[in-house]
TrEMBL record:
A molecular function (GO) term: diaminohydroxyphosphoribosylaminopyrimidine deaminase activity
Cofactor(s) named in the record: Zn(2+)
PANTHER family linked to this entry: 2,5-DIAMINO-6-RIBOSYLAMINO-4(3H)-PYRIMIDINONE 5'-PHOSPHATE REDUCTASE, DIHYDROFOLATE REDUCTASE FAMILY PROTEIN (AFU_ORTHOLOGUE AFUA_8G06820)
UniProt gene name: ribD
Name of this chain's protein: Riboflavin biosynthesis protein RibD
Cofactor: binding comment: Binds 1 zinc ion.
Annotated pathway: Cofactor biosynthesis; riboflavin biosynthesis; 5-amino-6-(D-ribitylamino)uracil from GTP: step 3/4; Cofactor biosynthesis; riboflavin biosynthesis; 5-amino-6-(D-ribitylamino)uracil from GTP: step 2/4
Domain CMP/dCMP-type deaminase, residue spans: 1-116
């Protein structure tokens, strides 16, 4: 299964909106076939592994990182391919609720195939965005922020280019490439005019261009901003009081959402992004929007780059969250990864207890 997980990870930048899946066919301790899913619309991991195994697949075990599909999508069901190839046993590392109506596992068992569930946290982690969209009808939300050692993200003037090293900024590109959308607020649009595109160090690396998303309640964002340049699709969320004027380029779309406490309803925004097929959303915004997302309980992961410099107390804070009166009210996070990137410290954190709704499915029987 470790090999199947490594294969699945090869699709990290390309499978969206599909999940990343790997499959290994084994008989008598010998690996006969390996496969992974590369792109939506192309062959699934099981089919690629079966192709490599050929006739030897008869009587073998298939290790699959995600429950095999039982329904017709853009390709035929993997369950049928496994049965047809004569696979004797299928070991599954994670459950796919989106497939349950197709009764694929029941069909495998009815055909005499032994199906075992080997719950594997790594398999959940690999597809946390896909599982979030399927199980919570909202994407997995990761906030990326670059800050100084004293927790500041921009000078009081708004200047923030650059707090962190070139290597950290290159690293951010790989996280963008994993994401289905890169989201910002109108404050950052005005201050930085970001491109929000993926520029990987190796230009040969394949990826699916993430959707660029801007929250611009009153549509005051300039139409000559980079997000209008057609280099990647762009979706602009606005409030009910305004309507888009003029004819936007093909790459730019608008969606209206309602308000909550006078601001765009962030839960509605995320539900819309799930409808758009977004698994992972990377937020690259300022203190106002990042604070609002945190306050709405919509942040699943923090990616923080800490640069060894001091910007002083009049510089802008990490988050616009006010009003805590006791330490007991503090938001608790746990560090899940730490490393040095260039001269900066990169931390990956998750809210304590934040994944409980998603984790419950790990132990679900199939
Ligand atoms: N260090 C870093 O990693 C980093 C990253 C990004 C940005 N920055 C810096 O951050 C600064 C900009 O930050 P900012 O806080 O002013 O802007 P922001 O967080 O990027 O955007 C905030 C704006 O988003 C809009 N918005 C729409 N719906 C919202 C909602 N539900 N909740 C909150 N906001 C909503 C609001 O403007 P409307 O009402 O007009 O829609 C709001 O003023 C810049 O100086 C930039 O350089 C730093």
């Amino acid at each position: 299964m470790a090999l199947a997980l490594a294969l699945a990870d090869r699709g990290a930048y390309t499978t969206a909106p599909n999940p990343r899946v790997g499959c290994v066919i084994v008989k008598h301790d010998e690996v006969l076939g390996q496969g992974w899913h590369a792109r939506a619309g192309q062959a699934h991991a099981e089919v690629n592994a079966l192709r490599e195994a050929g006739d030897q697949a008869r009587g073998a075990t298939a290790y699959v990182t995600l429950e095999p599909c039982g329904g017709h999508g853009r390709t035929p069901p993997c369950v049928d391919a496994l049965i047809h190839a004569g696979i004797a046993r299928v070991v599954v590392a994670s459950v796919d609720r989106s497939q349950h109506e197709n009764h694929g596992v029941e069909r495998l068992r009815a055909a005499g195939v032994v199906v075992e569930h080997l719950p594997c946290p790594e398999a959940r982690e690999l597809n946390q965005g896909f599982f979030s969209r399927i199980e919570r009808q909202r994407p997995w939300v990761r906030i990326k922020l670059a800050m100084s050692l004293d927790g500041r993200t921009a000078l009081a003037t708004g200047e923030s280019k650059w707090i962190t090293s070139a290597q950290s900024r290159e690293d951010v590109q790989t996280w963008r490439a994993r994401s289905c959308a890169v989201l910002t607020g109108s404050g950052t649009l005005h201050a930085d005019n970001p491109r929000l595109t993926v520029r990987l160090a190796d230009p040969q690396t394949a990826f699916v261009a993430p959707l660029r998303v801007v929250l611009d309640q009153d549509l005051k964002g300039p139409t000559d901003a980079h997000v209008w340049d057609g280099e990647a699709p762009t979706l602009i969320f606005h409030g009910p009081a305004v309507t888009p004027q003029g004819v936007p380029p093909d790459s730019v779309r608008f969606r209206q959402v309602g308000l909550s406490d006078g601001r765009l309803d962030l839960h509605q925004v995320m539900a819309c992004l799930a409808e758009e097929g977004c698994n992972e959303v990377q937020v690259e915004a300022g203190a106002v929007l990042c604070g609002a997302l945190a306050a709405a309980g919509l942040v699943d992961e923090w990616l923080i780059y800490i640069a060894p410099l001091l910007l002083g107390s009049d510089a802008r804070p990490l988050l616009g969250i006010n009003g805590l009166t006791s330490l007991a009210e503090a938001r608790q996070l746990s560090i899940v990864e730490q490393c040095l990137v260039g001269g900066d410290l990169r931390l990956r954190l998750k809210p304590l207890g934040g994944e409980s709704a998603l984790s419950a499915v790990v132990a679900e029987a199939i």
